[in-house]
Amino acid sequence: MGPQRRRLVIDGLAFEMIDSPRPSGSAAPAMVLVHGVGMSHRYLSRLHRRLGASTRVVSVNLPGFAGLPRPSDDIDVTKMGRALARVVATLGEDRVVLVGHSMGVQWSIEAALAPGEAVAAVVAIGPVCDERHRTLPSQATGLAVDTLGETPLINTIVFTDYLRCGIRWYLRQVRRMVAYPTEKRMRSLGVPVLVVRGERDPIAGRDWCRRLRDAARVSRLVEIPRQHHVVQHSAPHAVADAILFHTAGDWPDAAAVHARTAARNAS
């Protein structure tokens, strides 16, 4: 059976899900893939297929992107993340790994911080925004440099998705992205975090990714050689293998990490 597409409206926000069923005999946690600003599930499709050979995978198109209706108000990262958490809750899974790319990492963090026990881990691919480069010109420069290293196919997907998104909504969300304190919010997470970056990613630099890794309570960092920002499309096998290996159960489970976090907060 191929992926099933369906829409879901949460608090007036329209989401679309591309859902590949769990293969027979799979015990791996479900994977929920979250695109970045301006983007859609399309640049996650190779990773989706690779992960889908091992477990249930759901790619989510967020409100205002991928041709979905734009929200009437300029919603912030927290509100979008909380709505995403409610989408995850509809899946009926007791273990979910949120896999975010770029700004999708921010929305995934907020979804993992929302009430609920389903999220078992967060995967942060090419996370933004480096607090030392947290300006619109700096992010634009990084994006421009990255296009020189990506394949023509990736650049075509990226820029056609930007056009579908629309410049006004894109810029509204980019401002939210730049203002969001990723490192600070990462420290609040009570689930394990896997940070993934391409070795040549000019947007999610090595020092920044190391700081994010160190900010999380339970974390690891994987670097994919010779790859750039859209590493999940250019090297889907390597990224999928890293995700499956590092979320296979050798980390403390979410409940144990939640308990330690609560104890620390109480002390």
How does this structure look, described?
By secondary structure, this protein is α/β, with parallel strands linked by helices. The chain has helices at residues 45-52, 77-89, 103-113, 136-149, 152-165, 167-179, 182-187, 206-215, 231-234, 236-246, 254-266; strands at residues 4-10, 13-20, 30-34, 57-61, 96-101, 119-125, 193-198, 219-224. It has one domain (4-266): Alpha/Beta hydrolase fold, catalytic domain (Rossmann fold), CATH 3.40.50. The protein has 11 helices and 8 strands. An 8-stranded mixed beta sheet has the order 1-2-4-3-5-6-7-8, sandwiched between helices. Helix 1 (45-52) packs across helix 10 (236-246) and helix 2 (77-89) crosses helix 3 (103-113). The longest helix has 14 residues, at 136-149. It is globular and about 45 Å long.
Features:
single chain, Rossmann fold, alpha/beta, 267 residues, eight-stranded mixed sheet
